[in-house]
Amino acid sequence: MPEASFTILDEGRAAEVPAQVRGGRVQLPASSLERALGWQLKPEGLCQGEVCIRTAGRSDLVSDGQVDLAAFAELLERPLALDLDERAAALGACAQERAAVLAGGVAPDFTLPDLAGREWTLSGLRGKKVLLIAYASW
Description:
With about 140 residues, the protein is an alpha+beta fold. The chain has a domain at about 5-95. It is built from three helices and twelve strands. Strands 7-8-3-2-1-10-9 form a seven-stranded mixed β-sheet. A three-stranded antiparallel β-sheet has the order 4-5-6.
């Protein structure tokens, strides 16, 4: 299948990159991986700044200069949600990062409207008791 545009969401950013879908797997040129996620394919492995992860022996990760997105997410221990029909993928935070945030006992900051339309930011209520009720129809 020829390369076509694919959307990758990571940490609130969206990047449109060329990619191929083969056998239900997304293959990105190494340059697309760098543009979308900030990782470079180097002889020593996948690198982001001074951090490098060895890729030797990982034929599932890199093949013919293409990086398999699912294998990349697995290597970084990050969850990956794929919608091949919409040509979109989203990378979640790794389990260790989520655990560190939860262990700290501090909720992430967010802003939501109340029933009257006034916006409330969680950090603006710091020091006060707050009851959050979440509801979803699914």
